[in-house]
Amino acid sequence: MRAKSVGKLLTAAGLVMVFAAAGIYAVYDRADRDAGDSAQELLDALDAADSGTSADNADSGADADADAYSYVEAVSAAGEMPQKTLKGYALIGEIIIPSVGIDLPVLNDWSYNLLKIAPCRYSGTVEDGNLIILGHNYRSHFTPLKNVAVGDEVRFTDVNGMTYTYRVDEIETLYKTQLDDLTITDYDLTLFTCTTGGQSRFVARCSRTD
To answer: CA 35 → CA 8, 52, 131, distances in Å?
Structure first.
């Protein structure tokens, strides 16, 4: 095969790879934006439920839609936290890290599909002092977590309006096989997200200060 033909084939192959990479990025970027929109809708719904109005009609003072904004609170069962069911999702509250611009709802249960909506409770509770929250590595979700520093303030407000304040005391990276190292901890709050490629987890350990 002539050198010129080989060069054309290599160029074509390179273009295919570039376009494929661009397509993958576009899909991921769309998923990221959708995740951000979903989280914001839940935050709006949570605010609306607290004020007793529909998120779409907050200015008019209309009653919240029964299906989208109905809520239940669960506080009696061991290992449970207060919950509100909004837009079909059970929420336990809102996580805020001012230093990195995180302000997101937190779902009570976790699954890979739920992580596309908002960060999720992985295990534990506030009262037991072992709450672990997992967020997807989306820019609109927990990617900014990687920019936290020791000493940063973290606030968690439950669905009953109780705010708990924490301080980031330790930052570590764990391999995905180190499940015990992730969950067996004396820290009051653990936040984590996957690193790019998913081979390890970025972990922020926090102590309660309030």
So the answer is: 40, 25, 23
